[in-house]
Amino acid sequence: MSQPFAPQSPAPLSALENAAEFLPRHVGIDAADEAQMLAVIGEASRRALIESIVPRSIARSRAMDLPPPVTEAAALAELRALAARNRVLKSFIGQGYYGTHTPGVIQRNILENPAWYTAYTPYQSEISQGRMEALVNFQTMVCDLTGMPIANASMLDEATAAAEAMALAKRSVKSASERFIVAGDAHPQTIEVIRTRAAPLGIDVVLAQSAAEWDAALAGDYFAVLAQYPASSGRIDDLRADVQKVHARQAALIVAADLLALTLLSPPGEWGADIVVGSSQRFGMPMGAGGPHAAYMACRDAFKRSLPGRLVGVSVDAHGRPAYRLALQTREQHIRREKATSNICTAQALPAVIASMYAVYHGPAGLRRIALRVASYTAILAKGLEQLGAPLHAQDCFDTLVLRTGDATRSLAARALQWGANLRVCDENWLCISLDETTTRADVELLWRIFAGDARDLPAFDAFEPGVEPLIPTALRRRSSYLTHPVFNTHHSETGMLRYLRALADKDLALDRSMIPLGSCTMKLNATSEMIPITWPEFAGVHPFAPADQLQGYYELDAQLRAWLCQATGYAGVSLQPNAGSQGEYAGLLAIRAWHRARGQGQRTVCLIPSSAHGTNPASAQMAGMQVVVSACDARGNVDLADLQAQCERHSANLAAVMITYPSTHGVFETQVKELCALVHRHGGLVYVDGANMNALVGVAAPGEFGGDVSHLNLHKTFCIPHGGGGPGVGPVCVVQDLVPYLPGHATAGIAGGVGAVSAAPLGNAAVLPISWMYCRMMGAEGLRAATESAILSANYVSARLKAHYPTLYASANGHVAHECILDLRPLKESSGVLAEDVAKRLIDYGFHAPTLSFPVPNTLMVEPTESETLSELDRFIDAMIAIRAEIRQIETGIWPRDDNPLKNAPHTAESLLCADWQRPYSRETAAYPVASLRKNKYWSPVGRVDNLWGERNLSCSCIPVSDYA
Ligand SMILES: *Cc1c(COP(=O)(O)O)cnc(C)c1O
User: What residue stretches are annotated with the Glycine dehydrogenase C-terminal domain (predicted)?
Assistant: First the structure.
């Protein structure tokens, strides 16, 4: 008991410092809450609870060795010092990464706004209309600029998009060839990732290094070709004549194109390209040492059903109004599983939203102006370099010049460095210079000075300016219009933009409004102090391929974070390169494949995956060239060890790996996991432990200690990177000592070895790594363990309180769950006709995002409360679930019809309740205010139940024509 104003002996300084501790900010429950929750669960202490849940056989042998936690202010100060070790020079490197001005209204109201960045992937359509409108804008923008009929809502980066395009072409064209032709003047990182991806699929990648080689290659045999437009060195090739040649071979033409250039260039869709990919980075996303940025993929209509990634489509709601939803293959990962063709789950939703809003804010005229300025400055730069007698290589180009600098290459690059500029050193004889939106006159003059040598007159910018023409060939100038939809022609004032962003955000439920109890997704606090550093110029402003000494801050951050993640997982090595969990899985399986091959065991390609696994597991195994064999689960939800043993014996000679999730996707700590690992090892296989559920393990048990050989983490789940409405993510791949040599490398960035690059940039989504660094730094080893234990406590509290209303499907022998619980709603179908989906939609009326629906068990809800929710919020959710159970009873007892009740009609829009003639068998109050607290704080769904089938039958994935609103 404190008496704030009574004279008292001074508190010890350490107690005062505790007042600034981060832990109680991150964990939502305090000691009193904990006691109350333990009483409900029936355990004496948190320690006793954890010991009764986590099998003793896997408990950590010792605590994690992390630096002691510091306060938010101290962590920020320490990170500032790290950031200061990066050096932000003026970048003329290009190669897929360009300077850009993030409009302030977009930076503050999207990138730094939790209403946008804490949202989840829009699986629950009704509460995601705002972000889906933004993503439809993105798709429309990509379609318009590329001239293609359909585009998805983002890819992980340009290089992986190109690799996915290769795979899409392979499964879509008639040609049976295994050869893929790549123009040598594509971005080197793109070529590198394509090679990584092609190898396990048996695809033969042929580089065409010159025009002659390209022509010769096109006359040969292949299933697809890829060319960069404009090329990496800036040249604009006229590919129109190549289209017929490619199509005559029943093959596909893939074009990697720059969106800004396409505002001035004839778009690939107008001359017959089959797939167009690229990056939207220069539409407002800082370079951030390589990511996160939204890549894009657009394709011809015939390919749309195999398009990877997420696609937002337009449908109608229960009232016949337009409404957005995720379309097509969105669910296919789960349905297709081992037949899946792409493993993309988390993508780059937030960067895609930002790129789309950049286009909304500037509009077509603004984008064209920006592009024209870049192209004109490039032309002026060229004139000046010519005047100076610089060895400029004449070429058609948009923003990039190339110089044959020969012996002077290194000294010119060094001279540029002295003056604060990075040029691209292509090889020992060639330099490239790329301009962008941020290039100023002074920059152009600086570049002239670099090439002028000493004591010479500089060219005069003003002299070149009148009548300057871009260096774009007349035949390839764009004549078609783009971005004609009103959304790109309305919000050009800052006031207008601000209100548009606010209106969209207001339609959605994100963590800034309520708990998002999504099992397997770990929607925990994304603390503001963790988010602040990502827009610091020292992190945001650096080019991924800048000289190493300019990236020292990032290297150190990478090294520290990797060391901490090794502590958390018990593994020996980590790579932060993969851009999502799925990419970490893929990288991990590549490491397993490489390890077997290095030991002369290349025949080991069978990957056993339990039936309860996440859909990305079989999809990743497929992409890594493995043969997926599904193993059974028993009635209690555990991996059926007898079946696994039989499968191991059957495939013993060819067993590559077993992929398990731990604790299982059923939310249970299986007690026999050590035996499982030993069994797999006995048969020569390796154990892949999917780390998506690490929020139940950090500080408590480590997969690298209990038998795992490889895991991926989801930093956007366990380590606080926000979900961004469907990305960005970071999916570190973690391995035991023997597999460290097979982690991803990155030759383009000078990092040799390993299984090659799996992402365009060596550190993947580097710019969001400070978030997880801050989290670990402020929590420390004890704090992270406390978070895990609180997460487990909260899940058990939810399970215990709801037991009498919705039984938990799977639990350990003592009735406890891990950090999530599956509520079994299956019996309700029989008794009332109510499906889990109806409860999910009714929760919207109560102001909640639904738990995970029908994964891993159909017609169930999987609840993961995380450690960050307060007890009052947990209770609010539980009370809503109990109230809904009472509503279901009204149906069971016949008071409400099975097809006309608050669950089937949920969610209720304000408009539907305000109709003059209310005919439902329940009152409007029951519909809108089923519990009293809603009268104080009510979320109104902007649309009624979205009709998925209608959307599937009438597929449309671009902005809604204005007439449809009439
Ligand atoms: C989220 C998740 C994944 C995939 O991770 P992404 O980052 O979305 O690619 C894989 N496995 C499990 C069990 C997951 O929950």
Answer: 787-908
Query: Ligand 1: which residue has its CA nearest to atom 4?
Result: 581
Task: Give residue-wise pLDDT tens across range 534-551.
Answer: 999 999 999 999 999 999
As annotated, the residues of the chain forming the CATH 3.40.640.10 domain(s) are 121-360, 574-764
pTM for the structure as a whole: 0.97
How many of the other CB atoms lie within 10 Å of CB of 244?
Answer: 11
The answer to whether residue 455 scores a pLDDT higher than 70 is no
> 345 in ligand 1 pocket by Cβ < 6 Å?
yes
DSSP state of 535: G
* Average pLDDT value for residue range 913-925: 95
Residue 916 burial (10 A CB sphere; 0-12, 13-18, 19+) = exposed
Q: Is the beta carbon of 731 within 6 A of some atom in ligand 1?
A: yes
The answer to whether residues 117 and 526 touch, using CB atoms and an 8 Å cutoff, is yes
The answer to whether the peptide bond before residue 391 is cis (omega within 30 degrees of 0) is no
pLDDT tens digit sequence for 152-198 = 999 999 999 999 999 999 999 999 999 999 999 999 999 999 999 99
* Residue bearing the CA closest to ligand 1, atom 6: 581
Architecture label for domain 121-360 = 3-Layer(aba) Sandwich (3.40)
Indicate if ligand 1 lies below 6 Å from the C-beta of 522: no
Verify whether ligand 1 is closer than 6 Å to residue 661 (CB atom). Answer: yes
469-499 residue pLDDT tens: 999 999 999 999 999 999 999 999 999 999 9
Domain with CATH 3.90.1150.10 in the chain: 364-476, 789-931
Question: Which residue, by CA, sits nearest to atom 7 of ligand 1?
Answer: 581
Residues near 617 by Cβ (< 8 Å), separated by ≥ 6?
585, 609, 659, 661, 690
Handedness of CA 415, 416, 419, 422 (dihedral sign): negative
Of 334, 345, 695, 855, best ligand 1 pocket probe by most atoms within 8 Å of the beta carbon: 345
Residue 1: predicted pLDDT: 42
Position in ligand 1 atom list of the atom nearest CA 344: 9
Q: Give me the percent of the chain exceeding a pLDDT of 90.
A: 91
| Per-residue pLDDT at 964 exceeds 80 | no
pLDDT tens-digit series, residues 31-71:
999 999 999 999 999 999 999 999 999 999 899 999 999 99
Q: Is residue 405 in contact with ligand 1, taking CB distance under 6 Å?
A: no
296/441 Cα distance (integer angstroms): 31
> What average pLDDT is seen over the chain?
95
Which atom of ligand 1 approaches the CA of 729 most closely? 7
Sheet with strand 860-863: strands edge to edge: 821-824, 860-863, 852-853
- Ligand 1 atom closest to Cα of residue 346: 8
Encoded tokens for 613:
């696994």
- Encoded tokens for 575: 């790579």
- What DSSP string describes 776-803? HHHHHHHHHHHHHHHHHHHHHHHHHHHT
CA of 964 to the centre of ligand 1 (A): 37
Q: Is the CB of 690 under 6 A from ligand 1?
A: yes
CA–CA distance, 275 with 273 (Å, rounded to integer): 6
Q: Ligand 1 within 6 A of 470 CB?
A: no
Which numeric CATH code is attached to 574-764? 3.40.640.10
CB distance 575 to ligand 1 below 6 Å: no
pLDDT of residue 17: 67
Quote the pLDDT of residue 10. Answer: 63
The topology under which CATH files domain 364-476 is Aspartate Aminotransferase, domain 1 (3.90.1150)
Ligand 1 centroid distance, CA of 724 (Å) = 15
Pocket of ligand 1, candidates 348, 524, 614, 716: which has the most ligand atoms within 8 Å of its Cβ, to mutate?
Answer: 614
End-to-end CA distance of the chain: 64
Q: Is 281 in the pocket of ligand 1 (CB under 6 A)?
A: no
Superfamily of domain 789-931 in CATH is Aspartate Aminotransferase, domain 1 (3.90.1150.10)
pLDDT at 334 over 90: no
